[in-house]
Amino acid sequence: MTHNLHIHNTLTRKKEKFIPINSPFVGMYVCGPTVYSDVHLGNCRTFISFDMMYRYLLHLGYTVRYVRNITDAGHLEGDRDEGDDKFAKKAKLLQVEPMEIVQKYTVGFREIMNLYNTLPPSIEPAATGHIIEQQEITKKIIENKFAYEINGTVYFDVEKYSKTNNYTELTNRKLEDLLEGSRELDGQDEKKGRLDFALWIKAKPEHLMKWPSPWGIGFPGWHIECSAMSTKYLGEKFDLHGGGMDLQATHHTNEIAQNIAYCGKSPANYWLHTNMLTVKRQRMSKSLGNSILPMELVTGNNPLLSKGYHPMAIKFFMMQTHYSSTLDFSDEALQGSEKAFYRLMESYKTLQTISAAASSNENIAELQKKCYEAMDDDFNTPVLIANLFETVRIINSVNDKKINLTQTDIDLLKKIYQDFVFDIMGLKADEENSKSNSALEKVMQLVLEMRIKAKNNKDFAASDEIRNKLNEAGVVIKDGKDGATWSI
RNA sequence: GGUCCUGUGGCCGAGCGGCUAGGCUCAGCUCUGCAAAAGCUGCUACUCCGGUUCGAAUCCGGACGGGACCUCCA
């Protein structure tokens, strides 16, 4: 595998060359959604970012096992390791089974991911399907003396763990600072240390989602599911682990601790964290109530939006920012991206029609190289896009007969689009509905021919009328050097 | 309060010691019967105050603004 991919590793806080443990095989784990409500645009950003990385690894020729879990159990409402989990709470509210909630939002999530043209992961395991595995790991951690059981709940002993391990490795914080920042234990608490977290939680009688265990009836803690499922499908040590930045400090820190306490190995060589989507500079989150749902974006049915947007325009908007930067959402910014996206797509259409010359004025191979350099530099899609707009300029100039390209260069441009726009960023043009479209195509050809006749007769009144009427119907006519083109 | 990140032109966003991306908007020009589209040109920026350096948006210190995490969240 010859490539020069470098990845910013959160674990080391450095950009490092990507070297898989077992090339050409790559193991990649990403923390998926908690399916108790609709995913919002911020969630989507994370999964779209990781989809882009997955696609690039595939493009480079790796055989990737991409595991993205579905959290459908054990995710608590508060930090106190008590109370109902999110599914049971919502389920009671709606008088339905918890698994009904899970089913509904899992299906919804997949629909949205499909809407954004992301590839399905290789495995999409659910936490409820891995209760045994989670219990086994918990048992082993107790055996290794890094966890203790009190009244049917099992806690991870952070203090003990940090004597022999660096608990704060992922965040580079000082343990004392963490302790200082955390809540004092009060009489209600049964855990020993302030930073201790639950691996298994005792269920109250009214609790809906619960399972038998060596420690009584209960349900798993949040962090243990990822340890269990990543170990099961990718092994004790794999290549990439990703998730949103908000998971770094707590979830991923605990996950690493669990894995080391379980088998002595830190799970992943490279940790990747995607940054947040913000609205008016503030993080989009369920709890703040500033969420935009993917479907609202398409329909325009949200106070923040002036209109609906094509899912691919939204995806393009995201790709214009590096995954590790915050992206501020606004209607105005989205409008800019939408225009840019359509221009990129238009130029791809134009590319299919331009004809070759004996020589080239542009160095297309160099441009392709720059595209790879951008992607190799920690998946820098904004720079990639900047390079792609260079191709837009070139294609349009050839179309205007201002410069020339050889057939080899035209073919190379087509390959650049296919590789970077469609395969790697996962953008797609509107798929043409061939049957009705071919009929429409013939009708439009007829109309345009009539208009040309009118123009040739200097009957501009008639030609303008045709254009205006078509405009009203949503069809835009553009007169070019070699006749007119149309688009909807 | 603690820890950390961040502040780029009208807007969105790359860059992160010299070569000053890209997109959108706006203005002008070319093309065009007129439009639209396209091409070209222009508006040329790095919060502020110090310091390091031959040279800083980029490194260091400070101030101010914004944000994240520390508590469920991608």
Domain unit count: 3
What's the gyration radius in Å?
27 Å
Average pLDDT confidence is 88
Strand content: 5-15%
State the total count of DSSP E strands.
15
Stretches where pLDDT falls below 50 for ≥5 residues?
76-82
Number of helices: 16
Give the helix level as a range of percent.
Answer: 40-55%
Main pleated sheet: 4 strands, parallel
Within CATH, the superfamily of the largest domain carries the name HUPs
Straight-line distance between termini: 43 Å
Structure description:
This protein is an alpha/beta fold and 488 residues long. It folds into three domains: 6-274, HUPs (Rossmann fold, 3-Layer(aba) Sandwich); 279-424, Isoleucyl-tRNA Synthetase, Domain 1 (Orthogonal Bundle), CATH 1.10.730; 434-487, no CATH class. It contains 16 helices and 15 strands. It has helices at residues 41-59, 86-94, 98-115, 131-143, 158-164, 175-181, 224-234, 248-263, 294-299, 311-319, 331-351, 364-376, 381-399, 407-424, 434-456, 460-472; strands at residues 6-9, 14-17, 25-30, 63-68, 147-150, 153-156, 197-202, 218-220, 238-244, 268-274, 277-279, 282-283, 327-329, 476-480, 483-487. A hairpin with a 2-residue loop joins strand 14 and strand 15. The chain binds one RNA strand of 74 nucleotides through helix 1, helix 6, strand 9, helix 8 and strand 12.
What is this structure, in a nutshell?
The chain has 488 residues and is an alpha/beta fold.
